[in-house]
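dumping this here so i dont lose it
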């Protein structure tokens, strides 16, 4: 127990000492708190002063930075001002860079109007920009004036496909049109020339962009359009394009006009594929910043030049129609169709809509005139009132003219198909071109029938018809018209040729053959009968036989002399006609001579009556239809 009491006493003593220590610490801490509160109170003013100093330093730094930026803008302004004062002549790129810097400076001060110097600087910068703008307009005009030179014809010709380039001789004459085959047109490659040296185009584009940004679109467009339009018109003039009124065109002699039409086709191709295409490309490059300005300028540049070209075409389309104009009309229609897609592509935009419409209108006008000329030609063929016919019955000039005309038409098959819109007739017998061709052929045949009636000799009338229809059939068979008109048409007209050949043989030789007939030669009082394989001469009168031989000789010599002067120009037809005559004449003559010749042989002067042997007659027949006068 005592030990326990001792430990309890020790524990109590320890607790008392701990309490005393705790009280002492609490007292000390209370003292620290008082002192810290006093220290905090003492430090607060210092902290406030330190914060104010830090804030002041930050404000100073900001001000210094702003001042540095402003000073930099002042330096940039002075640098730009020096370039503006120099002008764009020394270094255009540096001048344009200076303008860009001034615009940047103007934007900076406009967004920082709180600076006291902003208004003053803005006023100065805007004054410099105004001065720069005047100089840029002058430089834009000067650059365009220097760079916009007319294209020489030889440079344009070199941009054409080789098949369309004029020969060296024609270049010396001003580049007269040398037509090329249609097959070459499809694969033709055109290389539009650089109307302005490529290295200057970016600078012009930058000048245009600066002027547009400054709100000077109108002045910029006028300067550009005036310079380029003048160059374009001069290029066309050097090429040979003339400004002719419709009245002047329509009063020109056909020989001169035909040549000018050929040149016009060439000019249209060069203008659209080279010059207009080049102007469109240049407009797109210079005015990259504005689509509407591109279209507006291109329209202003090309308007007069295109109108000059189209006006000539319109004058031709509206002139008095005649058959010889059909092919040039088709040539003109063909080139307009060829160029229409490119015209629609190049003359794009609302500004060029009227020009596109004018080109399309010319195409339609040419098509309508060509179709009407077809009708006129058909009517002219049928009503051709030529009184002069060849006395030899040869092919009439009208026939060869019409056939050549039709042959030429087939050189334009693709164009004609487009012109007639490739529609089928309701009866299904073929295309409109086939219908037109058949109508022309029928009109020709009707006219030939009328002309044939002018011949007083029926035999020569049939020779005339045979010659002309044969010429038509042969020409058709050797041309593309064969497929269009068809085998039935050819066979039908070949039968007409044969019918006329048969009619000629019947009409021309029937009287001669009657002389070689045995009918009417028998006489009860006759003498000198001789037998023959072709019958016998029993009862034949020598006098009657002599008369028959005499009549035969007279008729044959008359026919021979006359028909040697007739003409069958086709050698095959001529030989077949001679053979057809020989087939009916020679057997009859041989038979008559063999049967009745012995009656004459024993008489006085038999050679007076039997003048020819069958072999001699065959030789004579070989001279027929040569167009030369002969005597038997």
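and the seq i came up w/
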């Amino acid at each position: 127990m005592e030990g326990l009491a001792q430990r309890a006493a020790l524990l109590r003593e320890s607790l008392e000492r701990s309490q005393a220590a705790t009280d002492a610490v609490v007292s000390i801490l209370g003292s620290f708190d008082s002192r810290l509160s006093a220290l905090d109170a003492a430090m607060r003013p210092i902290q406030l002063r330190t914060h104010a100093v830090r804030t002041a330093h930050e404000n100073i730094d900001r001000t210094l930075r702003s001042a540095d930026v402003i000073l930099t803008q002042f330096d940039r302004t002075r640098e730009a001002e020096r370039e503006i004062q120099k002008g764009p002549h020394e270094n255009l790129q540096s001048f344009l860079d200076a303008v860009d810097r001034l615009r940047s400076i103007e934007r900076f001060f406009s967004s920082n109007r709180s600076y006291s110097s902003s208004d003053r600087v803005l006023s100065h910068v805007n004054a410099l920009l105004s001065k720069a703008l005047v100089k840029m307009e002058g430089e834009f005009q000067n650059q365009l004036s220097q760079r916009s030179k007319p294209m020489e014809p030889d440079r344009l010709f070199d941009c054409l496909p080789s098949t369309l380039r004029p020969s060296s001789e024609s270049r010396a004459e001003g580049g007269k049109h040398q037509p090329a085959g249609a097959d070459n047109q499809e694969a033709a490659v055109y290389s539009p020339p650089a109307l302005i040296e490529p290295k200057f185009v970016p600078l012009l584009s930058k000048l245009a962009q600066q002027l547009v940004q400054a709100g000077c679109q109108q002045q910029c467009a006028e300067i550009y359009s005036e310079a380029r339009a003048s160059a374009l018109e001069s290029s066309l003039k050097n090429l040979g394009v003339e400004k002719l009124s419709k009245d002047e065109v329509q009063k020109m002699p056909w020989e001169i006009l035909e040549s000018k039409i050929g040149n016009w086709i060439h000019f249209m191709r060069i203008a659209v594929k080279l010059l207009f295409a080049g102007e469109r490309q240049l407009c797109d490059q210079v005015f990259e910043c504005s689509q509407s300005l591109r279209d507006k300028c291109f329209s202003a540049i090309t308007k007069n030049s295109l109108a000059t070209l189209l006006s000539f075409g319109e004058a031709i389309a509206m002139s008095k129609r005649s058959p010889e104009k059909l092919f040039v009309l088709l040539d003109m229609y063909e080139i307009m169709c060829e160029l229409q897609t490119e015209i629609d592509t190049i003359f794009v935009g609302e500004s060029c809509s009227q020009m596109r419409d004018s080109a399309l209108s010319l195409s339609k006008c040419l098509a309508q005139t060509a179709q009407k000329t077809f009708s006129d030609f058909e009517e002219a063929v049928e009503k051709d009132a030529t009184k002069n016919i060849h006395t030899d019955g040869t092919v009439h000039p009208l026939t060869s003219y019409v056939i050549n005309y039709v042959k030429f038409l087939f050189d334009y098959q693709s164009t004609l198909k487009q012109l007639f819109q490739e529609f089928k007739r309701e009866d299904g017998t073929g295309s409109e071109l086939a219908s037109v061709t058949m109508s022309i052929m029928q009109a020709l045949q009707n006219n030939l029938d009328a002309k044939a009636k002018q011949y007083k000799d029926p035999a020569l009338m049939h020779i005339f018809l045979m010659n002309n229809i044969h010429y038509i059939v042969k020409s058709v068979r050797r041309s593309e018209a064969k497929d269009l008109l068809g085998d039935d048409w050819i066979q039908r007209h070949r039968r007409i040729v044969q019918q006329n050949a048969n009619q000629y043989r019947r009409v021309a030789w029937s009287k001669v053959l009657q002389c070689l007939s045995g009918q009417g030669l028998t006489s009860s009082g006759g003498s000198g009968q001789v037998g023959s394989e072709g019958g016998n001469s029993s009862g034949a009168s020598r006098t009657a036989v002599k008369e028959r031989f005499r009549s035969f000789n007279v008729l044959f010599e008359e026919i021979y002399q006359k028909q040697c002067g007739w003409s069958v120009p086709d050698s095959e037809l001529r030989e077949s006609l001679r053979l057809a005559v020989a087939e009916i004449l020679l057997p009859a003559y041989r038979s008559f001579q063999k049967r009745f010749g012995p009656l004459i042989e024993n008489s006085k002067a038999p050679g007076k009556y039997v003048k020819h042997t069958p072999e001699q007659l065959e030789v004579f027949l070989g001279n027929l239809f040569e167009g030369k006068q002969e005597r038997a």
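Residues 2-86 form the longest helix (85 residues).
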